[in-house]
UniProtKB/TrEMBL annotation:
Protein source organism: Winogradskya consettensis
Start and end residues of each stretch annotated as Disordered: 1-29
Transmembrane region(s): 42-63, 69-93, 100-122, 134-154
Keyword Nucleotidyltransferase: no
Keyword Oxidoreductase: no
Basic and acidic residues bias locations: 1-25
Record's protein name: ATP synthase protein I
Keyword tags: Membrane, Transmembrane, Transmembrane helix
Length: 160
């Protein structure tokens, strides 16, 4: 073998460019300079969750007394804390480095659903009278928070 057969030519990335790659990118709207837009829905959702917690506690109390009232309110509170935690973690990751959104989001979901599973496993296996009301409180919290967040996004995204 001679020297010419063993040497490699340097890699030229321009040789593999497509004509499509040379097109200009579309003009995208700039992100808002104020990062608070990522969490501007939290005060409204927190107020809604507090109202839902009071309603759930009232229904629980009327159906089974203080234990059910506490269980229903605790179920809504679990969902409120869980969703708020996700929102804050994702908003922080987006301000620090957008590439962190997916890994931190997945980690947050794994942690919060693991905690929810542990909490519900202990509650279901106990003889506490408010355990059924806690489950219904979680259902009410998820449905309520999701519906209000959908409404918020639809309200914000409407053309002016």
């Amino acid at each position: 073998m001679n020297k010419e057969e063993t040497e490699f030519e340097p890699f030229d990335p321009k040789a593999f460019e497509d004509e499509e790659d040379k097109r200009p990118l579309p003009d995208l709207p700039p992100l808002p300079a104020d990062p608070r837009w990522r969490v501007e829905h939290l005060p409204f959702l927190t107020a809604f969750s507090f109202a839902l917690m009071l309603c759930a506690a009232s229904v629980g109390f009327l159906n089974g007394g203080v234990q059910n009232a506490f269980g229903a309110a605790a179920g809504v509170m679990i969902v409120t804390v869980s969703y708020t935690m996700s929102t804050l973690v994702l908003a922080w990751a987006d301000t620090v480095r957008p590439a962190l959104i997916m890994p931190l989001g997945m980690l947050t979901y794994v942690v919060k659903y693991s905690l929810l599973g542990i909490i519900l496993a202990f509650v279901v296996s106990s003889e506490w009278p408010g355990r059924l009301a806690l489950g219904w409180g979680v259902v009410a919290g998820v449905l309520g928070w999701t519906a209000v967040q959908i409404w918020w996004v639809a309200r914000i995204s409407r053309p002016k």
